[in-house]
């Protein structure tokens, strides 16, 4: 450094005591020119240029850790958006499914109701013409009940207590025509009897079903002439099976069918049917409320059809 500082001064030269400062360096090949003595004598020293500022370092690229962090953030963001969209879709699908199920359930209920009504109508239409009104004259007066045509010979099954003490028996058919009937026979122990009318063309005969296949809760219909009001149908269910009930006359009916279908005086001897229109019982009596001594609502009993068939065979074969 000291040597460089001395080089800025004009060195001694034998040619001339005054040389241009341009001749002091070897920076370029420019020609040497002389400068007036007054200027060269007081030429300020020349110092080397100070250190130049280095150019700013290029921006650093993110390192591997930064790239991994950035990638992780992007994946989390994508996963979060996807998860949210999936949950929204699932919720929407579940809501749609629930709504569809609710609509399907409502439709099924409506359809079921319509089907039940259709079955009831068809069942009644199938057997209605086979159910007749029975008017019996006794020494005490007149009593009414119902009966069911069971064969093409004109045989009609009814309750024994309907025809007990008969003097005359009159049968009123569904179309309003009246026929005289004769008592064929009875099975008093089962409170059953058979009367017969003259057979006629296109007679409707009831189909007898199997009462052993009944189940509690099954829909049933009662058809008869309650209080003398002909061709009346009421509906209910099988409330219980195999009941043992005793009538006011002392007759005990075993394996009776209990039903909540409305049964009133005049229904006795009529038809209790299933939804296939088959005869599965003969309505016989209604329970009595001992406190009021009146018929109990919704507690009625019928003789099962299997017992009816046995009694028919006994009576008709006599």
H/E element order:
HHHEEEHEEEEEEEEEH
CATH topology title of the domain at 129-316: Thrombin, subunit H
Total of helices:
5
Q: Give the uncertain stretches in residue-range form.
A: 1-42
Largest sheet: 6 strands, antiparallel, barrel
CATH class of the domain at 129-316: Mainly Beta
Counting helices, strands and paired strands, the structural category is alpha+beta
Topology:
Layout: H1 2-7, H2 37-41, H3 64-127, E1 131-138, E2 141-149, E3 155-159, H4 160-163, E4 168-172, E5 178-187, E6 192-196, E7 219-224, E8 232-246, E9 252-259, E10 271-273, E11 279-289, E12 294-304, H5 305-316
Antiparallel strand pairs: 1-2, 1-4, 2-3, 3-6, 4-5, 5-6, 7-8, 7-10, 8-9, 9-12, 10-11, 11-12
Concise account of the structure shown:
With 318 residues, the protein is α+β, with helices and mostly antiparallel strands. The protein contains five helices and twelve strands.
Describe the structure.
By secondary structure, the protein is of the alpha+beta class. It has a domain at 129-316: Beta Barrel (Thrombin, subunit H), CATH 2.40.10.120. 29% of the residues lie in helices and 30% in strands. The chain is built from 5 helices and 12 strands. It is elongated. The N and C termini lie far apart (157 Å).
């Amino acid at each position: 450094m000291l040597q460089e500082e001395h080089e800025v001064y004009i060195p001694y030269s034998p040619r001339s005591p005054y040389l241009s400062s341009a001749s002091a360096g070897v920076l370029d090949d420019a020609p040497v020119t002389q400068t007036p003595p007054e200027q060269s004598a007081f030429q300020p020293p020349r110092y080397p240029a100070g250190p130049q500022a280095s150019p700013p370092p290029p921006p650093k690229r993110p390192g591997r850790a930064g790239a991994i962090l950035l990638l992780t953030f992007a994946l989390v963001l994508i996963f979060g958006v996807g998860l949210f969209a999936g949950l929204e879709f699932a919720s929407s699908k579940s809501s749609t499914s629930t709504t569809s199920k609710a609509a399907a359930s409502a439709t099924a209920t409506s359809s079921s109701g319509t089907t039940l009504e259709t079955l009831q109508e068809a069942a009644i239409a199938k057997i209605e013409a086979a159910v007749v009104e029975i008017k019996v004259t006794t020494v005490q007066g007149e009593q009414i009940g119902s009966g069911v045509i069971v064969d093409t010979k004109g045989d009609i099954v009814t309750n024994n207590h309907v025809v007990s003490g008969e003097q005359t028996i009159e049968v009123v058919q569904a179309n309003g025509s009246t026929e005289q009937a004769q008592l064929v026979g009875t099975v008093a122990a089962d409170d059953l009897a058979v009367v017969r009318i003259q057979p006629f063309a296109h007679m409707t005969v009831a189909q007898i079903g199997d009462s052993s296949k009944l189940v509690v809760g099954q829909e049933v219909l009662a058809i008869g002439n309650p209080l003398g009001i002909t061709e009346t149908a009421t509906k209910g269910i099988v409330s219980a099976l195999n009941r043992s009930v005793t009538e006011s006359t002392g007759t005990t009916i075993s394996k009776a069918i209990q039903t909540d279908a409305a049964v009133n005086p005049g229904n006795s001897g009529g038809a209790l049917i299933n939804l296939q229109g088959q005869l599965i019982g003969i309505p016989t009596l209604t329970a009595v409320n001992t406190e009021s001594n009146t018929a109990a609502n919704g507690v009625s009993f019928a003789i099962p059809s299997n017992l009816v068939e046995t009694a028919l065979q006994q009576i008709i074969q006599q």
